[in-house]
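Box 3.1. Reading complex inputs
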Amino acid sequence: MIINVARKELKSMFASPMGWVILSLLMFSFGTYYLNGVNDYFAVMSGAMRPAERTGVTQFVGQMVYGFASFMVLFAVPLLSMRLISEERRNQTLPFLFSAPISLTEIVMGKFIGLVAFLSILVVFIGLMLSTLNIWADIDFGFIIANSIGLLLMIASFSALGLYFSSMTQQPVIAAILTFIALFALMFLDRFFAGDPSNMLASLSLTRHFQSFSGGLIDTGDIAYFLLFIITFLTLTVRRLDADRLRG
Amino acid sequence: MNNFTVEANELTRLYGGREAVSNVSFTLSKGQVLGFLGPNGAGKSTTMKMLTGNLAPSNGSVKICGIDMMESPKEAKALIGYLPEMRPLYKELTVDEYLTIAARLHRVSAGSIKKAVEVAKDRCGLGHMSKRLIENLSNGYQQRVGIAQAIIHNPMVVILDEPTVGLDPIQIRDIRALIREVGAERSVIISTHILPEVEMVCDHVQIIDKGKLVFNGAIDVLKKHRIGNKLLIGMHNAPSTEEMLKIAGIIEAENVSAGLMRVRFAEDAAPAESIVQTAVQNGWGLYQIAPDQTSLEDVFVQLTYQDQPVVEQAAA
């Protein structure tokens, strides 16, 4: 049943130009970064004489592309997540889902998985794009896998938060703005506490938890953080929709 | 074990302390079409939302084919097809895509989805619209898609909130035929404020006003209310009401306008013949005599604007 809701979301996503435009624009920018990365690699490495200054091509290009990608999804997710529930609320199509034999949890999970599946196309494409380096170099696939997992978790957390804000309002634009502000704050929370890295609030920052992945390290602590983040916001969304049924 | 398809038990819904629906109880059996009547804001839609599990009742319970909506909502919802007042259509999809999704969400098995979609389109006259975007369909066709969505999984109970709004007369006739057809083997609940429609398609009527059930019974009872024992008589030289009352069987007579008189006669009396005879003998100049029907609208107004207790009539 979750899959059926997700399939419906994917269908709607691909039925409007929005999905295609965002996918293509993002891929275009990632591609540009990838090409620049490869060019820069030669420029920088030809100047780096000592072995200590040298880094692998996977890490050099990968860090550039994944760093940029984690920043770009900050704009892409609110645009895609905004309409998930708020538009259904505005068009009064929610009764269609509510009167079907599916639970609220299944509806929310379905919508969430639909969005994450859509965005994971990007993660797969970035992975494939970087893998093409393997044609002339011997690349570090572990690094790409760790980064892909990190990026996917980050996208999933963004989507969960976006879904929650989308369930709170009837106006997709308001949902998008709120999501963007909240994500922006969470991303750059650690910058505010740069002088005091051990601060509790700084460790709430999403960027900080992405850092270990971007270095090629899969840390269970960070995975747990992302999973908790996702579960929290999905639960809040279910509760928000349940309030509709109870309070009307 | 009874064979009620819908059992509503003392349904009450509060909106911030105000009772939108209070103590509504009724049952519906297989093969019945129930018409839900009421003025705007009477609580028709709220009751329907509660029946379909879209709204939690503040008090009371709903059972669909014996399954409690509160306790096992998924099983109960699987037996219902619901078309809300605002059509829940995804306008960016085509008719086929939308109906396929509806079938899938309503647990139609993967193998028979195609067939279910075809059958639903066929029944609602949507065959040639398959590949059109719902957005580009006319109002009437969108309504048909909404109805197709509600019957696609062949549910035991079909609940349609104002299904004929915005349709042209021919479409309305088609939809009514469809409701009758579905109602023959399943149960149908429709809400409307078009009174003749109720008379045409329903065999059971409920009138709801200010959240309370003011009438609940078979359509025949409502019709009886409507026809009454009245005659309208037109005469050129109208006699006084006293003279009219002398005719056997007449209990009441009143002047409607110059030359027009309305008389009420006792149950089981048929005074028409004696009225005509007397009129001819006395030269009243009779030119018209006809049963006087209170319009359904009048009955409706009577029922909704009088403080009278619920008229309970057991189903025949």
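In summary: The first helix of chain B runs from residue 44 to 51.
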